[in-house]
Amino acid sequence: MNPLVEQLRHRLVVSCQAYPGEPMRDPDTMRRVALAVARGGAAGIRAQGLADIAAIRDAVDLPLIGLWKDGDDDVFITPTLDHALAVARAGAHVVALDGTARPRPDGRTLGETVAAVKERTGALVMADCSTLEEGVGAAAAGADLVGTTLAGYTAYTSKQPGPDLDLVARLATAIDVPVVAEGRIHRPEQAAQALRAGAWTVVVGTAITHPTTITGWFASAVAEAR
Ligand SMILES: CC(=O)N[C@H](C=O)[C@@H](O)[C@H](O)[C@H](O)COP(=O)(O)O
């Protein structure tokens, strides 16, 4: 087992992302958010965009999963090999990329992409998947980590309110590659359930680092109680 992957075993990774046009969309802000979650016990950081990745890599001494969201097409998480190489060069220890079997904008297969990232950069690869079949395919393609990130975000999967713990469990049984539970983990007990379902690592984003959404949860509850 790679030592960096070992470091993440049964630990919490916090995704520090702000979306286009939002007030916190700024690399220095994300750097500070990453420093803050490190103090709280995060064992790793997931970050989006080359500038955020570079700023966080310099400031935070934790394993860093990087991605680059680009485009409005189906495949938007680190969609091409060039994106993946740039993410690695910006300082990510692990490159997170689309792990589905959908056509990629550069025409490369997932296997070709994973092999090229590993050969050319030495970074590890996390495949963001939405189904069991995709996870099995990503493991066969050489991914070092397989995530449930895209469950509920592809045209052929349905979005549950909470995390897809069933997919976590089925993946953990089916593949030898560590499974990352990611997506709609909104409460601490759901993170614990994900580990009990067989996850190697749990990634939480919105519920820790997206104040607009968290505020919306509270504002709705207050509005309903009025
Ligand atoms: C589908 C997609 O684009 N997911 C993204 C992947 O990096 C992020 O927008 C999510 O915040 C991240 O996966 C963590 O999930 P959650 O924020 O639900 O804890």
TrEMBL record:
One of its GO terms (biological process) is N-acetylmannosamine catabolic process. It catalyses: an N-acyl-D-glucosamine 6-phosphate = an N-acyl-D-mannosamine 6-phosphate. The keyword Flavoprotein does not apply. Pathway: Amino-sugar metabolism; N-acetylneuraminate degradation; D-fructose 6-phosphate from N-acetylneuraminate: step 3/5. Keywords: Carbohydrate metabolism, Isomerase. It comes from the Bacteria. Its EC number is 5.1.3.9. It is an enzyme of class 5 (isomerase). One of its GO terms (molecular function) is N-acylglucosamine-6-phosphate 2-epimerase activity. It holds the Pfam family NanE. One of its GO terms (cellular component) is cytosol. Belongs to the NanE family. PANTHER family: N-ACETYLMANNOSAMINE-6-PHOSPHATE 2-EPIMERASE-RELATED. Converts N-acetylmannosamine-6-phosphate (ManNAc-6-P) to N-acetylglucosamine-6-phosphate (GlcNAc-6-P). This is Putative N-acetylmannosamine-6-phosphate 2-epimerase. It comes from Micromonospora echinaurantiaca. The gene is nanE.
